[in-house]
Amino acid sequence: MYNFNYHRPTSIDEAVKQYDEAEDGQYLAGGHTLIPTMKQRLSAPTDLIDLSGIKAMQGITRSDDGAEKMLQIGALARHEEVASSPIVKSMVPVLSALAGGIGDAQVRNRGTLGGSVANCDPAADYPAAVLGLNAQLVTNRRSLDAEQFFMGMFETALDEGELLTSVHFPRPEAAAYVKFPNPASRYALVGLLVAKTNDGVRVAVTGAAPAVFRAAAMEAALTDDFSVSALDSILLPAGDMNSDMHASAEYRAHLCTVMAQRAVAAIVAQDQARARQVTSEVTSESTS
Amino acid sequence: MVEQTIGKSVQRKEDLRFITGKGRYTDDINLPGQAYAVFVRSAVAHAKIKSIDSSEAESFPGVRAVLTGGQVADDGLGSLPCGWMLHSKDGSEMKQPPHPVMAADKVRYVGEPLAMVIAETRKIAKDAAELVAVDYEELPATAMVNQAQEGAQIHAEAPHNICYEWELGDQEATEAAIASAAHVTRYSLVNNRLIPNAMEPRAALADYNPGSDELTLYTTSQNPHLARLILTAFVQLAPEHKLRIIAPDVGGGFGSKIFVYSEETALAWAAKKLGMAIKWTAERSESFLADAHGRDHVTEAELALDGTGHFLALRVKTTANMGAYLSTFASAVPTYLYGTLLAGQYKTPNIYVEVDAVFTNTAPVDAYRGAGRPEATYVLERIVNLAAVELNIDPVELRRRNLIQPGDFPYQTPVALEYDTGDYEASLNKALERAGYADFSSRQEEARSRGKLRGIGVSCYIEACGLAPSRMAGSLGAGVGLWESGEVRVNPTGSVTVLTGTHSHGQGHETTFAQLVASKFGISVDDVEVVHGDTGKLDFGLGTYGSRSLAVGGSALSKAADKVIEKGYKIAAHLLETERDKIDFDDGEFRVRDSNQSKTFQEIAFAAYVPHDYPSEELEPGLSEKAFYDPVNFTYPAGTHICEVEIDPETGKVEVVRFTVVDDFGTIINPMIVEGQVHGGVAQGLGQALLENCVYDEAGQLQTGSYMDYAMPRADDLPAFSVDTTVTPCTHNPVGAKGCGEAGTIGSPPAVINAITQALGIRDISMPATPEKVWRALGAGRAHV
Amino acid sequence: MSKTHVTTSINASLHEFLCEPGDTLLDVLRNELQLTGTKEGCGTGDCGACSVTLNGRLVCACLVLAVEVEGMEVGTIEGIGQSDSLDVIQEKFLEHAALQCGICTPGLIVSTKALLDENPDPTEAEARYYLAGNLCRCTGYDKIIRAVMDAAATLGGAKEGV
């Protein structure tokens, strides 16, 4: 690593101020992309602003956002915190499953939600959840819709120095995330999040293209008929997908359908389990 | 009476330090005032070096020196040699272009060292290394092995980039047999290039004492003496008696730490030149770029069979990638460690193999676990399987029909080797039983009911280990003898220090050799200490590779221990006032036959060092013996691997659900250690078959230069293994051992691919069988069979 | 560049050191504090050889800046058990020969301890998944998993016995 100045602010304002004052500042969250990049000397900030001391960016809470209950996760929440949080499990269980499947144990104990989302790696898992669950991204300046946030490969709507502070997830009716990991990196070769939400079925795809995107054709088909077979004939256009030594665009397109179908199957199974549970509760009530 | 431990799973003596973090690896060692080296490496695959401007780096605060390839040349250092001379079909010598310690005029692969920066800290050295400005005149790169002969010429000495064109076997008879055969199976294949990836990156610490002219090099070597010989006799770095090489705990090698590389050599040279201690530790990215890689063959083969499914002839034509320079043993790998193994376990009367070795603008390619033998086994066990499919004969039955039988030994193959012993069918039968081969179809059906495809594949391998009879090796071009040395020092109290010229970097020699010697003397394993890896402590040794340590090194120790016992007899005869022939040595005691008089091993040792009552006219005091053992033949471990896979047809993902191995390693000293060697070997074989692939682009840039892109087997990629053995002891060494270090890597890849092709009902799939390839094969359909 | 003073607890004893912002925790452990049991296998967080715990959570020391550990608790292989007082996990690694060259072993033992702290009774699949961040090139993982499962059983057995 090149030399840099290290800062450890305790408030968002202080962090932003330090960033603005730096010649070439960089925020440090979990550091699992930034530190290797700096070690390889591909990134050379003059100032590193370690966010870990900022209490306001931590924590996982349930918040009332108007009529709707939202799951509010501080940008500094580590993947393992999200994976094991009882609040996440009860409100948005798909998120804890997704977070528990990121990288490996060492990565999950350091990597953060905010870091992953702000970095916007095309193969990262979290962007699928943010977009698929229609989350709100809260920064030190504003609140952004997921649709506005992801702009392209490693490119977000965050302005220079703007700091992602928390992400607010509405509670989906049901959702599932299924990924096919890259055998080397364990990033998503393709990852599909399918969600039944208040405003309809959403399908978000990560890993397949330069940035996370919504699969409109799948959403339409599932809106008509939420079943595995509804996706049988849907193949996303390979022309929009990444092709590299790990997988061709054509294979990625194929995997999108398979992963989407598995996600749908998981949701259908959840629904059925819930229905059985309700039935048995009703039955037990009626018998008691 | 001390418990006899031969054949027992004694806990590894070396492990206590490793599990407590007290292992002492090269990078754990520091010397006061040491400087740090960082190498400047070529960013391009092929270029003339127009100039190197190091002035800015030299004036960077904290930099001690910047040394370039030009200075290496000015100091008259020799080229890094290849230790095995090959001759082409026409009798000409292989092309051996100079392999400079650091490039001076031209660079030939990305990552080739061309300068080194030495500074007070590693960070300063790294900062300054970026300031070394290299002006390249880029040349077209030749990166692909199958295009090497048409590509831009890399060395002036090697037109068409051909290093040698080698052959073995009877071409005429083989071609005649193929021409008249009832059936010929043809197969084209690529044996994928691999990166060894020992988990400890290479490292070195060199120290020079100008007062004594002694140069000490701590380094990650599998064979410190061989490194010393090469650095002194060929590179002329220092006189042999002034250079000490210490290979302390070494974190895995798999072949990649056999070789004498640029970096360690340059470091020792720099330490002497500058009169200071200097340390270098490779970053993982450097390991990817500049450790010698493995495999990388393109092959065409033909197997001829008669109407009853008996093999008549095998013809193989291979192009083997040497990379940009000939590494230490590179030339021998696709020839004497490959072509000679093509008979496998079968009675194929005619075999002819041609190998063209070519240079490319890629990192040097040399021995990687198995070294030539996995490639040979892959050709043979795949083409035999294909023949079985084509002839509609069960692949096990076809193998059975052609196996060399126990009554056939010694068996002379048509490709130079004479197998001493074995019972291949016994291993095959045991493996089939363990693998539940007979019940496979029920498991296949059950899998089908879950929408999964199951396949089962068999591979019967043989290897030649125990390198090597020196005279034979010499006649085939080896630059060194391949015997081994051992020394058994009995201390006055009767404990024993054993010195071996082999080197342990995971193999557990400290335990196995202690068991071997302890059993000879009837003493406790705890009373034997094994010392290795230091040219300052023992005479000479050839190191560890080619599964040779127990078969060759163990045999040397066995002989040395026998000499100690023989001397013990004489001392005992004197003390017990009888004749040597009336004494028996058993359970650690010298006993007078038919009497109750005896002396313990410890008493004899004490008498030898305190010779007050001693046959001084006849014997020298002391009880320490050396032996050199030169094997009379190779050893021939052999066995059967059976792989069962389950494939998700929707994604193409292959899961190895069951992996069974039955090996014949001859006499086994420590079954637990042997089992571990097999596990690790199989893991690397499964890695090659399913995950690992080294990729260069056409410009010679390495595309798989990190763990983000090079898929290593991880804990959740692999199954539990089912491992067993059969035993036919080696007939020609005193231990009866054949070697076990590489077998797993050799036998497993074809078993995996045979299983996958069976599951999919396809003819072939290339390694690694990635999910996408499997998915495409499913789409391509069954019509190809 | 001025150095930063860091106070931290390593293996439950107080340590102070000076470091530059760019020094990683691994650099400091190995080079400043001579705790060389923690190894460097890749430097990019992909191999797990440098696994340590930070406030009880398993992390790669090569990706943690030394300045970040101010006031935190670091656990390394040296804190798990000495040769005369081995932890059960170490005993089981020894018993099953769950190591060969030993370079990845400290990381694997630290990771196994973290696994069993979080999940005292893992299935084999859970153990394999949890340890997927630790590369071993020698063993093929089979004996490691056997050692881990045996350690879990032994620790579980001990708990039941209380």
Question: What does the model show?
Answer:
The complex is a heterotrimer of chains A (288), B (785) and C (162). Chain A has helices at residues 12-21, 34-39, 79-84, 86-91, 93-100, 105-108, 113-119, 126-132, 146-149, 216-224, 249-287; strands spanning 5-7, 25-28, 47-50, 60-65, 68-74, 136-139, 143-145, 150-152, 155-156, 164-170, 174-181, 188-197, 200-206, 213-214. Chain A has 288 residues and is of the alpha+beta class. Chain A has two domains: 5-54, 2-Layer Sandwich (Uridine Diphospho-n-acetylenolpyruvylglucosamine Reductase, domain 2); 58-275, Uridine Diphospho-n-acetylenolpyruvylglucosamine Reductase, domain 3. In chain A, β8 and β9 (155-156) form a beta hairpin. Chain A starts with a strand and ends with a helix. Chain B has a seven-stranded mixed beta sheet with strand order 3-5-1-12-9-10-11, with helices on both faces. Chain B is globular, with a radius of gyration of 27 Å. Chain B is α+β, with helices and mostly antiparallel strands. Chain B starts with 14 loop residues before the first helix and ends in a 5-residue tail after the last helix. Chain B is 28% helix and 23% strand. Chain B is built from 19 helices and 28 strands. Chain C is α+β, with helices and mostly antiparallel strands. Chain C has two domains: 4-79, Roll (Ubiquitin-like (UB roll)), CATH 3.10.20; 88-161, [2Fe-2S]-binding domain (DNA polymerase, domain 1). Chain C has five helices and five strands. Chain C has a five-stranded mixed beta sheet, with helices on both faces. In chain C, α2 (88-95) crosses α5 (142-161). Classes of the chains: A alpha+beta (288), B alpha+beta (785), C alpha+beta (162). Chains in contact: A-B, A-C, B-C. The interface between A and C is medium-sized, with 27 and 29 residues.
Q: What is the percentage of strand-forming residues of chain C?
A: 15-25%
Cα Rg of chain C: 16 Å
Helix content of chain C: 25-40%
- What are the segments of chain A in which pLDDT stays under 50 over at least 5 consecutive residues? none
Radius of gyration of chain A: 20 Å
Shape of chain A: globular
Total of helices of chain A: 11
Interface with most residues: B-C, 59 and 59 residues
Total domains of chain C = 2
**C-alpha termini separation of chain C:** 55 Å
- Contiguous helical run count of chain C: 5
Residues in β-strands, percent of chain A: 15-25%
